[in-house]
Design brief:
Oligomer: single chain
CATH topology of the largest domain: Immunoglobulin-like
Shape: globular
Largest sheet: 6 strands, mixed
Distance between the termini: 75 Å
Number of domains: 3
Order of helices and strands: HEEEEEHEEEEEEEHEEEEEEEEEEEEEEE
CATH class of the largest domain: Mainly Beta
Helix content: under 10%
Number of helices: 3
């Protein structure tokens, strides 16, 4: 009997731990959910979800559900530490109102072949800075999560200056970029800054390729300055290439990189122009969206309710790679290497093929390689050039003595201009 009770309470404890686990990544958990966009309210949907503490700035979350009837979705805010583990703060310590909100703004698509419901919600006022997750779930049941999105609330107590330039490493000067920077804190009291500050750098606001926490190369305590001008590759990133892109704002004529449009009574198919490798070609500068997409409808100008869905067919002409998977990659794939965006090789066409279900608009994308014979490589088919225009940002975290969470006390962005 004693063993039975021990087993029973152990089981209950484990179940409780499993329920307590919170997804703290950008993810979509339902195949019905499409076109998730998360951005500062009133700004471009291409802007990263970052706002300043103590201002009137807000954040807007939008997404579609491929369904005729509206569902009952709720969202909740979760505060995280610098490493994206869930912090020890209770909701009352970082949210002004009750931390569960019903998404009331639900609109139905208009004059589209594909019927969908569009959801829009605004994040509540937050009381602290740091890393956050918005978790959306069904019927008020937190175990039925449909999507999660990361965002940041920042404070500006320190100074950050820096420059993006070609890599110091001579073997990478033609292919990589590096960011050197200084952090100054003359008016802000930081205890043991070289250890207590947690600093990361991202390229194009992508979390998956962010640096680990960085340690300053030099500490100048007399002038309260930290130097992150590295000689090695701590803040060196592949330059990559400008993203490929295609335009399907209209189904009445072919936009850029669209070869053919097939319209049927109940669906539309968009056959993209055939792609080839760019790895051995000359770098060409053009303005891209850094891997993101913009929803647009040319005929009506409607973005949310009047833009329709279509099946986009991707074709990459290339020799088949042994023990290697090729993916269509970018925000259109949720920055994931998933079965849904993995390409299949067609030996008759000598090409990789994939189909993605996308909403009308302008899309950036790349072909991503992952396999045993070739390491994970975003630039295998794209080329890698140190002149590529990329954006970088720096986030500086600090946990004040006696506190139980990581603030973001500094933030700065930088643009590489190819000089």
């Amino acid at each position: 009997m004693h063993k039975f009770y021990l087993f029973f309470f152990t089981f209950i404890l484990l179940v409780g731990q499993l329920k307590a686990e919170v997804p703290t990544v950008d993810a979509i958990y339902s195949p019905k959910i499409k076109t998730v966009q998360f951005y500062p309210t009133g700004s471009s949907t291409l802007a990263p979800p970052i706002i300043s503490l103590g201002t009137t700035e807000g954040l807007t979350l939008e997404f579609d559900e491929l369904a005729e009837d509206a569902s009952f979705y709720y969202f909740k805010i979760i505060h995280c530490n610098a490493d994206w583990s869930v912090s020890n703060l209770r909701s009352i310590q970082f949210v002004r109102d009750f931390n569960e909100t019903f998404i009331q703004n639900r609109q139905f698509s208009t004059s589209t072949k594909v019927v969908f419901t569009h959801y829009t919600c605004n994040m509540p006022t937050l009381l602290v800075s740091g890393n956050f997750i918005v978790k959306v779930y069904e019927e008020g049941n937190e175990d039925r999560v449909i999507l999660t999105r990361r965002f940041n609330v920042i404070e500006n107590h320190i100074g950050i200056v820096g420059q993006v330039k070609f890599a110091n490493n001579t073997s990478k000067m033609r292919t990589h970029q590096m960011l050197n920077f200084l952090i100054s804190y003359p008016q802000y009291n930081i205890v043991n800054p070289s250890v207590q500050l947690k600093v990361i750098v991202r390229q194009n606001f992508i979390w998956k390729t962010a640096t680990p926490f960085l340690i300053p190369l030099y500490v100048r305590e007399d002038i309260r300055e930290l130097d992150y001008s590295y000689y090695n590759d701590e803040t060196t990133f592949p330059g990559g290439n400008e993203y490929r892109y295609f335009e399907m704002r209209s189904f009445n004529f072919s936009g850029f990189n669209v070869g053919r449009i097939i319209k049927q009574p109940d669906k539309t198919e968009v056959l993209l122009a055939i792609d080839n490798t760019r790895a051995s070609k000359m770098y060409i500068l053009w303005e891209d969206l850094n891997g993101k997409y913009s929803i647009e409808n040319y005929e009506t100008g409607g973005k949310r309710l009047e833009a329709d869905y279509a099946t986009a067919h991707f074709i990459l002409e290339a020799e088949e790679l042994e023990n290697v998977d090729v993916y269509v990659y970018g925000e259109l794939s949720n920055w994931e290497l998933a079965p849904e965006n993995r390409m299949k090789y067609n030996p008759d066409k000598k090409a990789y093929e994939a189909e993605l279900y996308l909403k009308q608009g302008i899309y950036n994308y790349r072909y991503y390689v992952k396999g045993k014979t070739i390491p994970v490589d975003e630039n295998y088919f794209e080329g890698n050039y140190s002149s590529t225009e990329n954006r970088y940002d720096i986030l500086v975290y600090y946990r004040m003595p006696g506190e139980f969470y990581d603030r973001i006390i500094g933030y700065q962005t930088f643009q590489f201009q190819g000089k």
